[in-house]
Amino acid sequence: MIPADVLELVPRRTEVYTPRRFPVNAERAKEELLDIGLRGLRARRNLLRLKQGDPYLYGRGAEEYAFFHIHDYHPIVLLDIISALSRPLFASIIKTQQAVADQVLICTGTGRLGVAPDTPGYMKCHMAVFLIALHRVSVLVELLFAAGNK
Q: Collapsing DSSP states into helix, strand and coil, what is residue 85?
């Protein structure tokens, strides 16, 4: 899931592992990645875990951090600007504007084990941003309309 342009920056002598992650095996891929990381740390290797998107918003960042912390390893986390707040600007979408929306609601489009999330009802003052949602946008639109009609 890391873009090829980013992977090209990794020196060729570096071992790279990319999990095969699909909705049906996301949990297995996560466990496999954690196991590989733990074995590498126990072998006193330096590890770098690249994540994209917002791994600490509906992602596995906090789960992975807790896993290694329980095993007495303390990861150093470098975060970038939260994409849920910054990326809409690239499409000229303003998330808050006086008299339009004064709150930003960040939601997940994919719950644990790939299930659809509970969707928020309509509120005129909200700008809702959905992460991990592109693959189910049509279902999400239906759920949002249903939630707004209650």
A: helix
Burial category of 113 from C-beta neighbours within 10 Å (exposed 0-12, middle 13-18, buried 19 and up)? exposed
Q: What is the pTM of this model?
A: 0.62
Cβ proximity of 68 and 35 under 8 Å: no
The neighbour count for residue 70, using CB atoms within 10 Å, is: 8
Cα separation of 109 and 134, whole Å? 8
d(CA 70, CA 131): 28
Query: 57-77: per-residue pLDDT in tens?
Result: 766 788 888 999 999 999 888
Token duo for residue 41 = 């740390």
Closest CA to 79 of 55, 45, 48: 55
CA–CA separation, 91 and 110 (whole Å): 23
3-state secondary structure of 131: strand
